[in-house]
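Re: your question from the hallway

Yes, I did run it. Sequences:
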Amino acid sequence: EPEVTQTPSHQVTQMGQEVILRCVPISNHLYFYWYRQILGQKVEFLVSFYNNEISEKSEIFDDQFSVERPDGSNFTLKIRSTKLEDSAMYFCASGLGANYGYTFGSGTRLTVV
Amino acid sequence: SQQGEEDPQALSIQEGENATMNCSYKTSINNLQWYRQNSGRGLVHLILIRSNEREKHSGRLRVTLDTSKKSSSLLITASRAADTASYFCATEDAGNMLTFGGGTRLMVKP
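Structure:
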């Protein structure tokens, strides 16, 4: 069964450093998402991406965050200057659109120290 | 309460029993989805019910949707120890955005 692949599975970074989280969505999917889950809390929407541009973003997705689909297969989330409160599990998801459901990756656990 | 709230927050049952989890939401939706998450792992899509559907089955899973009450339930029949996980409902709106609830932690004791 096709999978969404995320790398790395765990990243530890110093506060203030830039991190790039990588995702390879399922190849024929059209919609791409990033979500995050702070330990023990809800899964929170960050951003959706369709047709090579951001379609929606949440209040969490401020100027420190950016997304790219640089080569038609990878989908990246960049955090420019990490803060302690960015420590969370970050999930990438992809889908065909409404009413199909979404496939999530296994996540990247980001720890900011 | 926020969009997609589950209850109970935690549920502990014996193997073989049925588990029922409920979800309430506030705004209009295209569909409602249920996901499962094993501890520290990713989210696995279980089942999707469209706003014009009232009930759906998949294996041991049964989902109902009542749009007049803005609520859904997930029933897992004949539970197994391997069903131990957190279960989340998520509503999808017209903008293809998923909003997750807080989840129900299910423990199935062997």
